[in-house]
Design brief:
Elements lengths: L1 H21 L30 H7 L5 H8 L12 H7 L5 H14 L1 H9 L2 E8 L8 E4 L2 E8 L8 E19 L6 E18 L10 E4 L4 E4 L2 H9 L4 E4 L4 E4 L9 E4 L4 E4 L2
Antiparallel strand pairs: 1-3, 2-4, 4-5, 6-7, 8-9, 10-11
Length: 275
């Protein structure tokens, strides 16, 4: 009996001691170790943003990744990195690491990276073009579509650029004009279709698209507001107003339909008494 009682006392003391260790103590000062801080996001321009329009044109004509790196980073600070193994698993493009390296060797042998990009470059390519509908209500062209060279391809230097024709000519295509009513007449005639002979990557937004309040930025392919000081002033009151880049005006975040006898004040962005 005495042995059992002693064992019970020891067990109780152990439980109480363990509970005290888990409970936080206010009288103990804990000196923390070095605090790991998240680094602030790096701000700045992309390498593509620093290119001139001429360099963008050159970039869109390159076939080799080494040439692309040399153009983007003449100092050699930009390097081509191999994808990490965990990225290979996440993308699930290859089922295993061995399959990835096997495929990689095959790609090197075929030099398919270069050839695939060469196929996607901005060039005149055979495209199916639908002919315009005839003027008559009961008429149709046959064939109604033709294949002709027109510009198509990738412009990776700037998402604001697209593959566009630099030189073009009208080509006469002989088609059949069919009458689809009871007369069932048929005649041959020529329809002109535009053929592109030279292509290049150019801005989607043109200078003519800018308003009188905007200036054209050829490098970024955008229309930018001239009154930059007004934009800064507008952003200072961003809780009720926002800057409209299309109108180049400071506008209210929300507008209201005012009750009778009130009008919406665009300065205070609220309904007020009409004087």
């Amino acid at each position: 009996m005495k042995a059992a009682a002693a064992a019970l006392v020891v067990l109780t003391v152990a439980v109480v001691w363990a509970s005290a260790q888990r409970r936080p103590r206010n009288d103990v000062i804990i000196f923390p170790g070095p605090v790991e801080r998240q680094s602030a996001p790096q701000t700045g321009s992309s390498l593509l943003d620093l290119l001139t329009p001429q360099q963008m044109d050159e970039l869109d004509t390159l076939d080799n990744v080494e040439d692309v790196i040399a153009l983007l980073s003449p100092s050699g600070s930009l390097v081509l990195m191999e994808p990490p193994v965990q990225m290979i698993r996440k993308t699930q493009v290859f089922e295993s690491r061995s399959a990835y390296f096997s495929q990689k060797v095959q790609l090197r042998r075929q030099n398919s990276t270069t050839s695939l990009f060469a196929q996607a470059k901005c060039l005149p390519r055979n495209r199916t073009v639908c002919l315009p509908k005839p003027a008559g209500l009961h008429q149709m062209y046959f064939p109604s579509c033709v294949e002709i060279e027109q510009c198509e391809g990738c412009c990776f230097s700037n998402p604001m650029r697209s593959c566009q024709p630099l030189k073009a000519e009208n080509v006469a295509i002989e088609v059949n004009l069919l009458e689809t009513n009871d007369s069932k007449k048929r005649e041959k005639l020529e329809v002109f279709v535009e053929k592109h002979t030279k292509c290049g990557c150019r801005c989607i937004t043109k200078k003519k698209d800018c308003t009188a309040k905007q200036r054209y930025n050829e490098t970024k392919c955008v229309c930018q507001c001239k009154n930059e000081s007004m934009e800064r002033e507008c952003r200072a009151v961003g809780n009720i107003k926002t800057w409209d880049r299309n109108k180049c005006e400071c506008v209210c975040l929300e507008t209201e339909h005012c009750a009778t006898g009130l009008h919406f004040n665009t300065d205070t962005c609220r309904c007020e008494k009409a004087w």
